[in-house]
Amino acid sequence: MSKMTHTRNLLSLLCCLCVGVLSAQQHIKGIVKSKTDNSPMMGVSVVVKHKSVGGTTDFDGKYDLSGVAAADTLSFSYIGYKTLNVAVKGRKEINVSLEEEVTSLEAVTVSVGYRKERKTDLTGAVSVVKVDEMMSTAENNPMKALQGRVAGMQVTDNGGPAGKATIRIRGVGTLNNNDPLYIIDGVPTQGGMHELNSNDIESIQVLRDASAASIYGSRAANGVIVITTKKGKKGILKVDFDHYITTQSFHSRMKMLNSNEYAQVLWKANINKGNNPNDNPLGIYYDYTTDAQGNSTLKNLYYPREYFDKGGHAMLPSNTDWFKEITRMGVTESYNLSVTNGTEKGNYFLSLGYYQNDGLVKNTDFSRLSARINTDYKLLGDAITIGENFTINRTSEVEQPHNITEAAMRGVPFIPVRTKDGKNWGGPVNGLPDRQNPARLVNDNKDNRYSYWRLFGNAFINIQPIKDFNLRSNFGLDYGNLYKRALNHSYISGFMEEGKEKTFSFLEQSHWTKWNWANTATYDFTLGKARFETLAGMEMFAQSDINFAVQANNFALETPEYMWPSLGTGAITGRGDATGYKLMSYFGKVNIAYDNRYLASATIRYDGSSRFYKDNRWGTFPAFNLGWRLSQEAFMDNYRQTISELKLRFGWGQNGNQDIYNYAIYDIYNPYYGVTGDYIWSGTGIWNTSYDIEGKGTGQLASGVRRSRLGNKNLKWETTTQTNFGLDFGFFNNALYGSTEYYIKKTKDILVQPPYAGVKGEGADQWVNGAGMENKGWEVSLGYRNETSFGLHYDVNANVSTNKNKVTALPESVINAYGGNGKWDNILGRPYGSYYGYVADGLFRTQEELDQHPAQNGKGIGRIRYRDLNNDGVVNEDDRTWIGNPYPDFIYGLNVNLEYKGFDFTVFLQGVQNVDIINEVKKHTDFWSVDDTYSNKGRRLLDAFDPVTNPNSDIPSVAATNDNDEGRLSTYLVENGSYLKLRNVQLGYSLPQDLIEKIKLSKLRLYVSGQNLFTIKSKNFTGQDPENPNFGYPIPITFTMGLNASF
């Protein structure tokens, strides 16, 4: 073959290879979104690995590349997100979602003290809540969703439809209000979290120690919860819709006696007392025999054929389950719609939400309609930013009648709901206590409604004249308008009756206006290796409250449409009042970070309150923090693969407290114009000061006043000093992470109101300083997150915390009001609220035990034996001692999150260990005569002690009278309230992206969940729910189905 032929063949081969290579090049496009919220990401770098081919995503998150080979790999990267490498594999379109870089701590910022700070620079005790975990719980109150998720924070659910809860951070620090301060988008408030739409929340930080919270001033002594709501984001228009429906049922209920059991226990009570059981006032006839040894046996019993009410209507003996009569399956529905969009110059977030909870008790409900608008706009480039964050909501609520669950438990079972003819309500007969018919209470309560409008938010302007120097002015408004209507109807219920003259219509309206104006200047700069963040500011706050009410009596018609005060033919009475106070504050803060290793922070706050007299009006409250990031030291270089973050922290700070009556420094005199004392607000007539000269009771002379409060101009700030030691750590690229804290919290000059002192005369109530309290405790948080080789993402995190409380000081005039015997034994050095009473030492089971025991009034076989602690031969009040601690040894929570191929699964447990609670219900389950002899009792009485038939029982024998005073506070009533609850289990599934895009959705997730599915409690606890013992609104089991969709 000639040389020319070889050359021609080689050229042909090269041409074929070139054509093959060129034919392998392709055009590829796609969209990049954030895995967190599924929103398009602009500016993401998209490059072909090992080639100079690449680009960035546009405003809509789209990219378009040419010259990509089928075997190439695309690399997607963005600051703060994990880099994602995807093999092309011949595809022409690749859509991806980027995950936030959890290990990039340097880029994480949190809202602390009027500004954002880097999380790595924090030196105080600050918990950053994982909002996505919180949102897995179907709660209308976001604070309830935090239960067990933050170390050192205890949340107690009241169980009602409104979702109200009690929050305590690091225990009880004062004798007054212990609620934390909430900061929502820079505006302070101290309540109403059940009115906030959880779906609007972007982030939550909990500031637990004084060094972190002191910048917020006098209302921050009990901790601060900083909430930031969602803002608009740059990108395409995004619409989110969330919906769930929940059913509620009882976890358990107290087992009460039925009609036959009730009559049997009544018989036994009289037999034990030596009474003739057939002499009972209820007309129940017993057929029984008594043997030669005096032991009686019941053969049969007979109720009267019928009873009659006050109107002569027959009531047939029944077997009424009163608890069942007043309760139902509860249903909750929630709907939330939000719209967000943004550009380089401005962003907006709009939301609309509706929540409806039809409670477990009939005719109780809570509803909330909320709307929010958050916007921000840039002017003059980035020099000026203006914006606002406002929400308006309307809540409506029918609360349960007062103590309705207690009334249902005490309701006598043989009383019917209605009379035989259905015209009147069933009710008590002669011999029964005057207990109301629970079904009537629930029925008549259905129109007694609260309605509440609340406007909450802020408007701000931020000016940046030069780089890193910002001037910000933030004006916040919190306005509330409460409307309450209560109607009282006439009725006949057994021997109880209220006629038309007792009907009334009560209307009340209240207005609360709070405004807050904060002005701050921040300047950040660097000197060598040191970064400085400075803050200076002033803040003004004012609150004014107005309340007025009117009541009219005697209505001819009893319909809601008719019962307005102007139509009542009886007396019309009214009242009105107004109150308010003001705060003025100046503050400053400096943060220093040297070489990202050594950290320091100093804060000072100067607060003035109108609640104090001018000599004590102002208080100064400093704080400082130190931190050392050991993980950044050179000697840690060899351990960086193992130790990702290691930081020591120390903090010290003070907070003031002025949470007292607004006019406590003044003597208060009130005029009283009535002479009869019939007004619903004036109480008894002894307080009325008008003198009726003619003796006609007309009260025409309005000349009298009385002192209602004694002022104290020496009142001063209550001060809480807190010291905190902390350690933050992260191992294995922060896969294992956590923190631990130890704190000492001391409060002095606690503001307290001593008991009324008659020797000082009328209106001697007075506020004083003088009490002291101390809290100490540990807090530990620990978590581990990772991903398996087969794609399972998991995050397991837990927390546990302890708090030891003691009262360290009390004024002499107050000390005996908090437990003790009023002599040598008082509460000093013990936990606040400790229980003081007798030690129960089992039951008297034999005559020999009775004879050998010291003198004890009412003792007898089957009765509780109380210890003679001072060995004086007599059991009396001098034998009382400290028998219970209302604070747990520790509280804890455990959360498990799993994600796998579109599925997500969450399990959350929360518990309390070793806490003493007083089980008041036990007075009704274990005794016949301690409280309301003829009201219904618990079925535990069927297992009461009997020397012949049940000699091993620990429940006292049934007694017709309470001769042994067994309702006294003793260890018999104090029980272990420990529990572990399965708070939440949720399973969700997000449909594949390629499927939902066909129906124009960017996200569709379906889920099911259950809450409070089981409770493990102490064997010692005889009640139903240790979290909400006694007669509170029951905490339900709930089952939820829901969806999250984005367009």
TrEMBL record:
- Annotated TonB-dependent receptor-like beta-barrel domain ranges read 434-915
Would the keyword Signal be found if you checked this record's keyword annotation? yes
Q: Where is the TonB-dependent receptor plug domain?
A: 119-224
Cross-referenced InterPro entries: Beta-barrel_TonB (IPR000531), Beta-barrel_TonB_sf (IPR036942), CarboxyPept-like_regulatory (IPR008969), Plug_dom (IPR012910), Plug_dom_sf (IPR037066), TonB-dep_OMP_SusC/RagA (IPR023996), TonB-dep_OMP_SusC/RagA_CS (IPR023997), TonB-dep_rcpt-like (IPR039426)
- Domain of life, per the record? Bacteria
Keywords (alphabetical) are:
Cell outer membrane, Membrane, Receptor, Signal, TonB box, Transmembrane, Transmembrane beta strand, Transport
Q: Which Pfam families match?
A: CarbopepD_reg_2 (PF13715), Plug (PF07715), TonB_dep_Rec_b-barrel (PF00593)
What family does the database annotate?
Answer: Belongs to the TonB-dependent receptor family.
Q: This chain belongs to which protein, by name? A: Outer membrane cobalamin receptor protein
Annotated organism of origin: Capnocytophaga haemolytica
Q: What is the lineage of its organism?
A: Bacteria, Pseudomonadati, Bacteroidota, Flavobacteriia, Flavobacteriales
